[in-house]
Amino acid sequence: MKEFDYHIYGGGCAGLSLAYHLEINGKLKNKTLAIIEPRAEYKRDKTWSFWKIYDHDFEDCVIKNWNSFSIRTNDNSNIVKTKNYPYQSIDSGKFYKKINDKLSANSNVKFFREKIKNTSSIVFNSVPYPSFDSFFNNNKSKLWQHFQGVEIETNEEIFDDSIMTLMDFNCEQKNSVHFFYILPFSKKKALIETTWISSLENKDLMDYDNQLKNYIYKNLSIKNYKVNYQEKGVIPLFYSSIPENDFCINIGSAGGMTRLSTGYTFLNIQEHSKFIIKNLKNLKKAKSYHIGKKYELLDNIFLKVLKSNPKIMPNIFYKMFNGHVDGAIKFLSNRSNLINDISVILKMPKWIFIKSLFN
Ligand SMILES: Cc1cc2nc3c(=O)[nH]c(=O)nc-3n(C[C@H](O)[C@H](O)[C@H](O)COP(=O)(O)OP(=O)(O)OC[C@H]3O[C@@H](n4cnc5c(N)ncnc54)[C@H](O)[C@@H]3O)c2cc1C
Predict the structure, then answer these.
(1) d(CA 238, CA 76)
(2) Contact 123, 249 (CB under 8 A)
(3) Residue with the nearest Cα to atom 38 of ligand 1?
(4) Which CATH architecture does the domain made up of 6-128+242-286 adopt?
(5) Mean pLDDT to the nearest integer, 21-31
(6) Over the stretch 99-119, which tens digit does the pLDDT of each residue have?
(7) How far is residue 240's CA from residue 195's CA, in Å, rounded to a whole number?
(8) How far is the CA of 252 from the centre of ligand 1 (A)?
(9) Which of ligand 1's atoms lies nearest the C-alpha of 11?
């Protein structure tokens, strides 16, 4: 006898998003769902940000929207207006609460801290690495986005909360790509992140606490502040093949929902959840969702260039957002048309990219 109709491994962003979409679309009225999630309690652990290129169901979890962002290199600085596609940040604590409140009202949904006997007909898996240590050790030399951020609060009004800083490259690069990212939630409160795109072999890049302290003190001239919250992460900028079978569908990062050039995943997870609900009766179709081969190919070329030419990257990112910005945002959000793609490609240094393509 089937105890549960569906199993979801991992109740993080993708697992809970899918459960939420199952619930609000009435798919759990007569069906049962087991969510296997080891964490003992849900609290804010990530800040999911993205350009709001299309609607999603978590507007009530948004901390703030920005219609401008800045990008700074040693030589240039630009403030970019994004009227059509605001940049949004979601508080993961609010997101978890909203979904868990909704699911707790349905007795067909049960949470388990450990794997239970699988008797269901469908498994959705969002566990990216069954063993993080071995995955990490086997792939250390590949490219990762690794970062740490602190939400700080000051007594004085210091931040311009109308502009978020997408990338500030005025910091040590250590032959990698390094920038600071600032989300000013108010004039007195901001999340500041030190972000690297590099392999994970060089421990020198990982003294995040010092990097943050120095940047806050020297670049932002902030002497007094308190730390409200901290987050830390590593995002692999490559796809790992996690076994699937006829009864198992990978979702979230495990299901290839991360854009390799940027690490953006949140909106892709929402689109994937909607696609699964639409095709729930046809598992074969439900398995076929991809961000797009075009983006995978272009991102891989981009990352090859980045790996062998880290010094030119600040300028490349700067140029990407110079001129037709909506096209670049659509490209980075996998919603670009051919004209948008060409306009982004034309901003890149051609010979370096062509050489990487044929290497
Ligand atoms: C700190 C951080 C910030 C990020 N910021 C952004 C952002 O701004 N914008 C964006 O688009 N993307 C961002 N990302 C990338 C991506 O959106 C997130 O990683 C997102 O949480 C991915 O969702 P997921 O469900 O695949 O993984 P997770 O949310 O990590 O969920 C996986 C779940 O599996 C559980 N688990 C682990 N082992 C097991 C096991 N053996 N059995 C069962 N469950 C298990 C974990 O506890 C976890 O809850 C960020 C990532 C991190 C780490």
Answers:
(1) 30
(2) yes
(3) 127
(4) 3-Layer(bba) Sandwich (3.50)
(5) 97
(6) 999 999 999 999 999 888 766
(7) 22
(8) 8
(9) 49
